[in-house]
Amino acid sequence: MGRWEPNARGRMAEAALQLYSEHGYEQTTVAEIARRAGLTERTFFRHYADKREVLFAGSGELEELFVRAVAGAPESAAPIDAVAAGLDAVAQMFAGRREYARRRHAVITATPELKERELIKLASMSAALAGTLRRRGVAEPAASLTAEAGIAVFKVGFERWAAAAEEREMSQVMREALDELRAVTAGGR
Amino acid sequence: MGRWEPNARGRMAEAALQLYSEHGYEQTTVAEIARRAGLTERTFFRHYADKREVLFAGSGELEELFVRAVAGAPESAAPIDAVAAGLDAVAQMFAGRREYARRRHAVITATPELKERELIKLASMSAALAGTLRRRGVAEPAASLTAEAGIAVFKVGFERWAAAAEEREMSQVMREALDELRAVTAGGR
DNA sequence: AGCGTTGATGACAGCAGCTGACATCAACAG
DNA sequence: CTGTTGATGTCAGCTGCTGTCATCAACGCT
User: Is the pTM of this model over 0.90?
Assistant: First the structure.
């Protein structure tokens, strides 16, 4: 495997997911990941900021997609419905990737360090959503709370979708979760 | 400062908060923290699992308090109202500690690594709350969603409280945030 | 007072994550 | 064919973190 093989980033991401799955995150060394990808440790750190980031390459696109869908919702839509539109767009992105999502999620769930990284990515999404809602004229703290609600639905919905049978579509699961959140918050009083 | 000075943990926690505030988290070395506390690096790691954990010593008690209040809510209370009772109990704990909370929050907000740690502590609280709600007979996904909603209110409410004037009590801020969440989720349809 | 036990701390070696600096090499333009 | 460019390799070094063993203060027992 020569120096200039194509797709170095992708090879390292796949190698990392394999090794994290097989031997665990902590037991895996960055040098091992790089070696399996036919590269060196130094090159790994040129592509990924740290050992965790290699599993979160797509999070930027996900956030962009989510934000764009919320920003593009009809002006007349209530904030929570704009977020629902965002969840729908996100759900499309996961179509056909349930197996990969499961593999990745299993590793993250088993590793606190990776869980931390996932949480800060979700927090970044929440902040971006809140900003988008503010640009739509939503005041604080409504904007932040709506964004947090959307992320809560995404978190719970994602886990249910990942655990579910192939037939259940993510968009449907997300809608159910949002309805459940509505019911539950309306519960008291 | 001799070997057996009392309250080694507290001294290190205070030294860490000072140094993180003055020079930044990354620029502060664990050896420096230990030295300011009159101890060695090795002793620091005997008391705290890592360089971040030194700022989160109280998170366990906070979670316990929250959970106990939810578990102790009247059986007739709706899930969201049980969580509201928990928020109220938590708010009592912060009474008179706004200045300390501000200092600590400023450092955490400025440091992604610390933000990650805070987020996983909140996720732990969310999971504990969901478990408590399940024990109260709440089914999934309602339990997890209610717990996430409670944490969302806590996050948004905390920031507002920390930024607010001395007169505004945390319990009041939390109640307002919860009302706002109710309004916002009910918004669509 | 003397002595052994216990628990916290210090001292040291070492690995892994991560970075800066510089050399090397493939591809591409002209 | 040559100079440039950008990705990669190599090496040195710091810091976070851990295992291991020695040291020391406090306390109880005789």
Answer: yes
